[in-house]
Amino acid sequence: MCGIVGLFLKDRSLEPRLGALLTEMLVTMTDRGPDSAGIAIFGSDADDEGKLTVQSADPARDFAGLAEALGEAVGAAVTLEQKDSHAVLRMPLGALGAARAALGELRPGVRVMSAGDIIEIYKEVGLPKDVAARFEVSKMSGRHGIGHTRMATESAVTTMGAHPFSTGPDQCLVHNGSLSNHNGLRRELKREGMRFETENDTEVAAAYLSHKLDQGLSLGAALEAGLEDLDGFYTFVVGTKDGFGVVRDPIACKPAVMAETDQYVAFGSEYRALVNLPGIETARVWEPEPATVYFWNH
Amino acid sequence: MQTFDLSKSSLRELNATLHAQKASTNQTAWEIANPRGHHAIAVGLDAPIEVTVKGSTGYYCAGMNKQATVVVKGSAGPGVAENMMSGTVIVEGDASQYAGATGNGGLLVIKGNASSRCGISMKGIDIVVFGNIGHMSAFMAQSGNLVVLGDAGDALGDSLYEARLFVRGSVKSLGADCIEKEMRPEHLEILRELIERSGAPARPEEFKRYGSARRLYNFHIDNASAY
Amino acid sequence: MKDEKKAAQIPQTTPRQSWTFSNEMNSEIRRAAATGIYDIRGGGSKRKVPHFDDLLFLGASISRYPLEGYRERCDTKVVLGTRFAKKPIELDIPITIAGMSFGSLSGPAKEALGRGATLAGTSTTTGDGGMTEEERGHSNKLVYQYLPSRYGMNPDDLRRADAIEVVVGQGAKPGGGGMLLGQKISDRVAKMRNLPKGIDQRSACRHPDWTGPDDLEIKILELREITNWEKPIYVKIGGARPYYDTTLAVKAGADVVVLDGMQGGTAATQDVFIEHVGQPTLACLPQAVKALQDLGMHRKVQLIISGGIRSGADVAKALALGADVASVGTAALIALGDNDPHLEDEYRALGTTAGAYDDWHEGKCPAGITTQDPELMARLDPMAAGRRLANYLKVMTLEAQTIARACGKNHVHNLEPEDLCALTIEAAAMAGVPLTGTSWIPGRGGF
């Protein structure tokens, strides 16, 4: 149960403002989700660079000397940029897998928020405005981004239980609603080798889509398959390296509003999340149809 | 004309001020600036006043309205004019889900499109939509009239009771127990009157009428798949 | 001849009925095969489930000191809606009347409920059919239910209610909507609900204009704005997932949570729903209390518990486990005269017996309570029935006070789980109190 915001920029001149615009949208959705908040930013692509965004409950201890230790472990240069409880680890793309494995050994308390070429995910327990301020989201630039404010229903209010959920490279998913068959699906996906960090229904949806992508389906096809396999109520916004997608369940009673101009495509759980976007007065505003997959690519 | 700026005063002050207007008031015209998608704007009004909202609203604008005329100069969020009793609500832009839900009376005019579940469980309200309406509109609609100049989405009039549905454009699909019905002179008269009151750019002859087949009114096991 | 004689000498085993295919189950199979419709009935779960009967109070002796009956004060007043409402409701007794609709009940029955509740200093509640003059007029304090169907819903009644109860679920059928069959849709009921007369009316299971706690928060805001933030807003949930649902109701802004366990009644629904969906009241209550405690809102957001409350002992046990008020529905109808043995001949004529009559949807209630038939309705004298209800409510209050005094409490709300023990392991596990004679709470240790 939650608030979702998303912004996909067509006009590259807006990229420096992505974080600022998303932060404002996110804070507007505080009433819908006061428990925790998170944001995924898809920045610009640096050649052959990969990123891990990680989180620790004890950053002072966990992040000290981490870059050096990881660099040694994977035999490549690793840099670390700390932002509050999170840190972005940059390294050659090919070292990501090894670094992730080494991280578990070197710093068992560190959690991976996201991995990929460009994705960074920041999420924490607390009010959206505080979470956004801790990570200075408003200063971030990027090509598209997704934010989420959470009102927890059944699973715990924790950092890992916050959205977005990322279960594949440069992938993330946020959710408003409540799935009704996620336990069975989690069991199946576990048998297929997917790993889960939480008891959250949304993580199952994210892992489901990642699994389908791993099998070679396009994101569009994976979302279509999800319409068959995911039961319950959902509005999903999904981010990938190239863009973002939106899909609602066939009943579609969780809210969703979209706006499009020459400069951007925006998503909000409510219209008021969109009111400060440039040119919103003349934007095309509509609500996504049920059981229909929408996708925008750069 | 009284102006109320929601960026300067609270929603509570706004609604309390509007509720204080009695039938005898001479302050009949109110303008609300900076609605910016706020919820529950101008709800529970019960006086013949005119309220113009200059911008877009969030959930339940003009909810449970009686007597008043509320004009939204923008788009309306979910549940605009929900459970309206009387009066008029006009949305210049689009309306989100549940527009006019459970309304008992009055007139709701949506000049743009209405989203899903427009007129859900309506109980006597008249709704005129100049554009299209979304899926599951008029679900379990009990009475009143829904007039749509554009197209209707999936499952129009599912589990319909006695509400009358008039659609000018196409209907993507009809819901359980909803059928096309003969347009009789009395229906053309209802349409004529609603078109006139709402200022809709249409003629009664252009519409088709849909209503309940009344097959689900009493349970029968052989209809179980339709329940 | 010889063979027959021999056969007669062989002992026969007694014909054995199957536990699985009991006579009752077989009769249901035959009924379903003959009619092609699921069994619909009124009331709550009839199966035996762990209940407050399985708990006992410890009482005071040397380590604790009891209070003198009738002389030393033991308060019963409860204030509901102190969190946000400008006008909280004050009840003289920790017992209230649950929501029951006009339509399922007759006008005189609704009037009697109002009269009885008012005499006893408590509130009564509307149901899925709107507010009637009978009950508003005779109820000093009236809670107006806000239901998915919104039958008869209007802002005037909203403003003249003393509290608003947003109904999300019901213990008899968590996840299900209401049902009122054609026999009871009289002219008056049809008019109030804006439905054709004589149809089988099935109410929606979800609200038409909101889904989930994030939307509920906005709906509550709207209701508060319409009613000037005066009325306490209750949120009623069925005993499905009480920990989460209580948490979310509080997060969405409720002043009061109403929790209805599976023994809670309904006017009419599928028997399969009543008997197979939802949790017993005893199991639900501690989960809701835990949710309130985890939020730091216990006794700040009040908790009303219902579903199989029958006596002052039940009330006292519910309060001890953490409820603020217990609510009665089925028991109130029995006090009015439902299922009374003096009508046995008439119950027999309907193919049932006093105490078992639950075909409330058929509208043939001999007591004139669950009917819209003018002749049957006229049988219920609302004044006398109201008096019986008031007497019953007062007796329950006295019983609860008696227990509270015996435990040394000057207010019934000072009863605690530690004043209880359980007779069965099941009840000990559900209630979170020790098995009698031990300090063992299953799942929590002890000996």
From TrEMBL, chain A:
Entry annotated with the keyword Heme: no
InterPro entries in UniProt: GATase_2_dom, Ntn_hydrolases_N
Keyword annotations from UniProtKB, A to Z: Glutamine amidotransferase, Transferase
Ranges for domain Glutamine amidotransferase type-2: 2-298
Cross-referenced PROSITE patterns: GATASE_TYPE_2
Annotated protein name in UniProt: Glutamine amidotransferase family protein
Organism: Albidovulum salinarum
TrEMBL record, chain B:
Domain of life of the source: Bacteria
Name of the molecule in the record: GXGXG domain-containing protein
CDD domains listed in its UniProt record: GXGXG
Lineage: Bacteria, Pseudomonadati, Pseudomonadota, Alphaproteobacteria, Rhodobacterales
InterPro entries in the record: Glu_synth_asu_C_sf, Glu_synth_lsu_3
PANTHER family: TUNGSTEN FORMYLMETHANOFURAN DEHYDROGENASE, SUBUNIT C (FWDC), TUNGSTEN-CONTAINING FORMYLMETHANOFURAN DEHYDROGENASE 2 SUBUNIT C
Gene3D superfamilies in alphabetical order: Glutamate synthase, alpha subunit, C-terminal domain
UniProtKB/TrEMBL annotation, chain C:
Top-level division of the source organism's lineage: Bacteria
Keyword Transcription: no
Keyword Ribosomal protein: no
Residue ranges of domain Glutamate synthase in the record: 82-337, 361-409
This protein's UniProt keywords: Oxidoreductase
TM annotation in the entry: none
Family: Belongs to the glutamate synthase family.
The protein's name: FMN-binding glutamate synthase family protein
